[in-house]
Amino acid sequence: MEIHDRRDVLDVRNAIVSNSRFDDVNLSNTQFHNVDLSVAQVKDAKLSNASFSNLNMSNLKIENAEIAGTMINGIRLSDLFQAYETAKTAGGN
Fold it and tell me: CB burial class (10 A; 0-12, 13-18, 19+) of residue 76?
């Protein structure tokens, strides 16, 4: 199935759309529930003000990310990085 140059609301339920490609797509204000994004690649994405909960982020790799204001389990990511750097400087592992 191909959808090109359209502005529609999709309601996708109990579907397998693995190996799909989304390019130059606006998914803002979209809800995802019970989704499997294993081995997915997300490049050049804007996730500001997005919310994620009940995640399995095992082996997740994030590169070149702007993290201002980002929180994980109620802790600012910038504070975690600062604590890491402090421990590293003090000789921690």
Answer: middle
Cβ burial, residue 77 (10 Å; 0-12/13-18/19+): middle
Burial class (CB in 10 A: 0-12, 13-18, 19+), 92: exposed
- Tell me the pLDDT band of 45, cut-offs 50, 70 and 90: very high
Residues in the chain: 93
Cα 46 from Cα 25, distance rounded (Å): 11
* Gap between the Cα atoms of 63 and 61, Å rounded: 7
Interval 59-86 mean pLDDT:
94
* Res. 31 pLDDT band, cuts 50 70 90: very high
Secondary structure of the chain: what % helix, strand, coil (to 5)? 15, 5, 80
- Give the containing element (helix H, strand E) for 71: strand 71-72
